[in-house]
Amino acid sequence: MGEFINPADVPKVKFYTGDEAPCIGMGTFGSDRFTADQIAEAVDGAIKSGYRMFDCAACYGNEPEIGKVFKNAFDEGIVERKDLFIMTKVWNDMHEHVEEACKKSIADLQCDYVDMYYIHWPFPNYHAPKCDVESRNPDSKPFSVEEFMNTYRQCEKLVEDGLKKQYAPTLKRLSRSQGRLLVKLIDRECGQTGYNIAQAFIGSFKANIYQAMAFCFGNSLTKRYDPEGDDRYTERVVRLVESGQL
User: Fold this and answer.
1) 150: helix, coil or strand?
2) Mean local confidence (pLDDT), 217-231
3) Which of 63, 215, 224, 244 has the fewest Cβ atoms surrounding its Cβ within 10 A?
4) Is residue 60 flagged as an active site residue?
5) Nearest-CA neighbor of 145 among 113, 187, 85?
6) Nearest of 47, 49, 51 to residue 10 by alpha carbon
7) What is the DSSP letter of 142?
8) What is the pLDDT of residues 24-65, one digit of tens each?
9) What is the DSSP string of 180-205?
10) Which H/E stretch holds residue 207?
């Protein structure tokens, strides 16, 4: 085991609920290179070294093994449950059964509740267990706002049912240029315009109001992302970031 770091010295981010999460934590993906027991052993060492935030996922195939480590840490008095910030995610094959997936992860992790629960991928495409991270599914389907929102609202219900403590931080106010860039990137990644996204979240009436406001500032939420035209410079930068050159 390496040097122990006092968890109190690790910076934290505060959510709108007042709860805090360490800014430094441990991810538990590694199923393409390591066994579940090896990942669990690393988690054990991390807890004893001062790590208090752990990012887990059902599809990593190691939550039961990590759960044994958590339980041992609780039983031995190394940490209490409230000392850990545990996150996990619903996988693609359970988008229609979020509560069932969350309860299974909680049982596997032996942690009573999770502090945050994510939608692992925004669209429910299939990836074979332990597949390479570069693999692609030839039967992939486009992103669907309706399907995503159905899954998201199931996640909201988890908060109401007390299965997890929060589901999202509040959004910070964006500058005009930041907002325009965000709308472009949403369209690029999701194949949906900013108007489509707003319509799914807040309804057509409010979406039309936002579209009218955007029009007054010379923008449009209905304009499609154009990588070969107006958005070619944005596309060039995004590709540099994706390739690791920026």
Assistant:
1) helix
2) 79
3) 244
4) yes
5) 187
6) 51
7) -
8) 999 999 877 899 999 999 999 999 999 999 999 999 999 999
9) HHHHHHHHHHHS--HHHHHHHHH-HH
10) helix 204-216
CA distance 165 to 117: 9
Model-wide pTM > 0.70: no
CB 117 within 8 A of CB 88: yes
Q: Could you give the angle at which helices 36-49 and 63-75 cross, rounded to 10 degrees?
A: 30
Concatenated DSSP letters of 44-79: HHHHHHT--EEE--GGGT-HHHHHHHHHHHHHTTS-
CB neighbours of 46 closer than 8 A, spacing ≥ 6?
Answer: 26, 54
In angstroms, rounded to a whole number, what is the distance separating the alpha carbons of residues 157 and 164?
10
Distance of CA 123 to the CA centre of its chain: 13
Cα 196–Cα 200–Cα 203 angle in degrees, nearest 5: 100
Q: Which of 16, 51, 60, 118 is catalytic?
A: 60
